[in-house]
Write a structure and sequence with these properties.
heterodimer, A: 487 residues, alpha+beta, Four Helix Bundle (Hemerythrin (Met), subunit A), 13 helices, 50% helix, 16% strand, B: 121 residues, mainly alpha, 72% helix, flat
Chain lengths: 487, 121
């Protein structure tokens, strides 16, 4: 099919067709991203400092990510410049230079996505938060899957009507425990199970049998069976089974699948009950910062977080840092008149501070660090003030957090808070655009030679149109970077 | 085919814009990080936000005008963009209405008197 006006402009629009098309498409893209930016504004304005799930204000939160974001900005700008130069090269009929520029652009896109991956991985796998019962929040890292509940199971009780018990995926070690069916519908009691495949086979058979029994009971109830009169007794079919293990087996229970647990039992969401003995349900945590936005100032010194961290030095560090920032605010408002607005008093600047809990044997180092900081107090500044935290100190202590003190814990994924929800939505959608744009540009350079030889101006127009999309992607990032990483 | 002189001029303007964009990126990062750019009260606040967005707008305009050739384009494209801008602004402004809430303002004042101003850290 021949598409008209690939090179020559149409008389009524004054444009070649593809250009009009891409601008219409970009207009719709503006509305797509506009809606999301609007959602961002909506959510951010709706946040009340110190009342709602906090919005991570300012660079202090993202100091590890600011540089990644800044590098990505530079990478995208470089790629945008690359696209326009590739277009100019085509206009000059220089195929070789066109190729170099285009491959450079695609390489930039790859670098961008790699940096994005590092960032996502860090947010999803290395940064966690724990909200304690009094709404104080510790941010840091949950160590080595200790969010899981360690348990020694002896007995499993579950229903034959449901799906395969989720607990099987939480079993520790390679060896499947030896089970014996001790309670259940007739025919199943006494069966011994030695392996997972055997378990699956037995489960499928027993489930079929249980369902057939139920059908039969129903028929009997309705009097449909030959020779039987209607039986007024309600249907009752045993479909629950209990498996007893020959010796206790290790379980590492995923907290997402467990609704409740006690010293002697785990209750799974799918209705499976495990009896046995709780080994350990403490969460091992490395604290990087403490967030007391949701704790009233009068109660901050007695917050649960300090009894959990149990380190006088860390507590001192928090309040020294807080009062330093408070003085800065006080001075500012004295100079400019007025009192400190309560958004400031409740907000992140005063109530979120870096703390470092030194591992045993490293306290000495710590003290030195502090004297050092005191000397430079006069030079310290508000934003960089938050920066003197992790990194400079020795190893951190791993704190055991009792599970009954925890209200919520999670990684910095979309569920963690409004900010992370919109962060992932917008950056991921932008990332998809980067991938899409890069694929289109890659196509123009890998398969473009034939068209170049036939009609170079047509290829130049294609690159211009692809470039327009690419610049739009860059443009979105120009706004995303400051609002997501810096401000 | 455009003449060589014009292409050289175009190349120069593209390079200049590229450098300007890099400089503005540095400015954006400095607004977030360095105290000399911290206008308004210490710490992050609305002032930093306005400044950051202003720089971003300048950068975006450079990209749109030079890289996307919007400084000399056919009238039809401006017409399309006019509608886009109208709808996008409308969308943003509608959102702002959500912030009007007299009840919450009373609540804010209550919080102040109940919490911070009575006792300071």
């Amino acid at each position: 099919m021949e598409i008209p006006y690939e090179v020559t402009p149409r008389r009524d629009t004054g444009l070649y067709n593809a250009k009009l098309g891409i601008w219409l498409f970009l207009a719709s893209e503006v509305m797509l991203f506009g809606g999301l930016f609007s959602a961002y504004v909506f959510m951010r304005l709706g946040i009340q400092d110190g009342v709602d799930n906090p919005w991570p204000w300012g660079v202090s939160v993202h100091k590890n990510f600011v540089w990644l974001g800044a590098i990505n900005t530079i990478v995208l700008i470089a790629s945008s410049v690359g696209v326009v130069f590739a277009w100019v090269a085509l206009k000059e009929r220089n195929w070789r230079r066109y190729q170099i520029y285009m491959y450079f652009v695609v390489a930039c896109a790859v670098v961008f996505m790699c940096i994005k991956t590092v960032e996502y991985n860090s947010k999803l796998n290395h940064h966690h938060g724990i909200k304690l019962v009094d709404n104080s929040v510790m941010e840091g890292t949950i160590l080595n899957k200790t969010d899981r509940i360690s348990f020694k199971g002896e007995k499993l009780t579950f229903s034959l009507n449901g799906a395969l018990p989720a607990v099987l995926r939480d079993l520790e070690g390679d060896a499947f425990p030896k089970f014996k069916v001790t309670e259940g519908p007739e025919g199943t009691v006494g069966v011994e199970i030695q392996s997972l495949s055997q378990f699956k086979g037995w489960f499928a058979d027993s489930r079929r049998a249980a369902s057939e029994r139920l059908t039969e009971e129903r028929k009997r109830f309705r009097g449909e069976l030959a020779g039987g009169a209607a039986n007024p007794k309600p249907v009752s079919v045993v479909s629950s089974v209990t498996l007893t293990a020959a010796e206790p087996f290790g379980l590492s229970g995923s907290p997402r699948k467990i609704v409740a647990h006690t010293e002697t039992a785990l209750n799974y969401k799918d209705g499976v009950k495990v009896e046995g003995k709780l080994v350990n349900d403490d969460v091992l945590f490395e604290v990087h910062e403490v967030d007391l936005q949701l704790v009233l100032p009068t109660k901050q010194r007695d917050s649960v977080v300090w009894s959990v961290i149990n380190d006088e030095h860390a507590k001192q560090q928090f309040f020294t840092s807080q009062s330093k920032k408070y003085q800065e605010l006080l001075e500012y408002y004295k100079k400019h008149g007025g009192v400190i607005p309560e958004e400031q008093l409740r907000g992140r600047f005063l109530n979120v501070q870096y703390v470092h809990v030194a591992a045993e044997g490293h306290e000495g180092e710590h003290g030195k660090e502090d004297k050092h900081a005191d000397v430079h107090t006069s030079q310290s500044n508000p934003t960089a003030g938050g920066g003197e935290g992790e990194g400079k100190h020795g190893p951190s202590k791993h704190i055991a957090v009792a599970r009954d003190k925890i209200k919520f814990m999670g990684n910095h994924g979309p569920r963690y808070g409004t900010y992370y929800a919109i962060y992932f939505t917008m950056t991921a959608l932008h990332g998809l655009h980067v991938i899409g744009g890069a694929l289109v540009l890659l196509f123009f350079v890998v398969f473009g030679k034939k068209l170049y030889l036939k009609n170079p101006e047509h290829l130049a127009n294609r690159v211009e149109v692809g470039g327009l999309f690419w610049h739009f992607v860059d443009l979105v990032w120009i706004f995303l970077f400051p609002i997501m990483y810096l401000l | 085919m455009a003449d060589a002189h014009e292409l050289t001029k175009t190349k120069k303007s593209f390079a200049a814009v590229g450098i300007a964009l890099l400089v503005f990126t540095v400015v954006t990062v400095t607004i977030g990080l360095a105290p000399i750019f911290d206008f308004g009260p210490p710490g992050p606040d609305g002032m930093d936000f306005v400044l950051g967005l202003a720089v971003a707008t300048v950068k975006a305009s450079l990209v749109a005008l030079i890289f996307m050739h919007l400084n000399h384009e056919k009238g039809l494209i401006y017409k399309i963009l006019l509608f886009t801008v109208l709808f996008a602004t409308g969308l943003m402004v509608l959102t702002l209405f959500a912030d009007i809430d007299p009840i919450r303002e009373q609540f804010d004042t209550l919080q102040t008197t109940r919490g911070w101003l009575t006792e300071k850290p």
